[in-house]
Amino acid sequence: MTAEKTTCVDIERHSRECRICAHPDRDEIEREFCEWKALTTIARERRISRAAFYRHVRALGLFDRRDRNIKAALANFIERGSTVKVTAASFVAAIQAYSKINAAGEWVDKNEDVNATHNLALFDKMTRGEMLRYAQTGELPEWWSSGDTR
Q1: Are 51 and 71 contacting, i.e. CB atoms less than 8 angstroms apart?
Q2: pLDDT at residue 41, as a whole number
Q3: Which of 66, 97, 117 is the last residue of a domain?
Q4: Domain of 42?
Q5: How far lies 58's CA from each of 48, 61, 70, in Å?
Q6: Are residue 57 and residue 113 in the same domain, yes or no?
Q7: Alpha-carbon gap, residue 99 to 101, rounded angstroms
Q8: Within a 13 Å sphere around the CA of 121, how many CA atoms are in the beta-carbon half?
Q9: Are 58 and 124 in the same domain?
Q10: Which residues pair with 101 in a beta bridge?
């Protein structure tokens, strides 16, 4: 168990003394954190102390809530794939992981008989545009189904 899970907090006392609990944008701050926006970025943008924010997050168990929302972190990584340098393998791995996480944040393996090594080799041959189209629409390039190895 992590420290976040074992820490006992008097939630009423916390609520009375916490600057984040009293912040007018509290709901948005918590949502952004649970959608994997960096704690330091949120603190800087909202002009709140990182220490106070960290105490708030621990007191309310938001680390656990964020951990169950790993799909949002993967989505952010996939979206940045067109603007930052990522390897084809890491990009495809993120898409594959994203597709296996359900709405409850649970990993769901789909059993399909596929040649993963062959498919990963084909992903390495995709252009950035082809990968983005695949990530956004699920559409594979025409050459994929023909078995063209380029």
Answers
A1: no
A2: 94
A3: 66
A4: 3-66
A5: 16, 5, 18
A6: no
A7: 6
A8: 9
A9: no
A10: 107
Of the three residues 66, 82, 114, the one that is the final residue of a domain is 66
Q: Do 32 and 89 fall within a single domain?
A: no
Write out the DSSP string of 86-137.
--HHHHHHHHHHHHTB-TTS-B--------HHHHHHHHHTS-HHHHHHHHHH
Residue type at 68 in one-letter notation: R
Give Rg (Cα) of the chain. 20
- Do 82 and 35 belong together in one domain? no
Task: Give yes or no for residue 91 having a pLDDT over 60.
Answer: yes
Amino acid letter, 138:
G
| CA dist list (Å): 110 to 75, 105, 119, 122 | 20, 15, 16, 20
- Under DSSP, is residue 39 helix (H, G, I), strand (E, B) or coil? helix
β-partners of residue 107 are 101
Distance from the first to the final alpha carbon of the chain: 49
- Token readout for 93 is 């791995």
The per-residue pLDDT for 5 is: 44
Q: Is the pLDDT of residue 20 over 80?
A: yes
Give 52's pLDDT tier (boundaries 50, 70, 90). Answer: very high
In eight-state DSSP terms, residue 139 is P
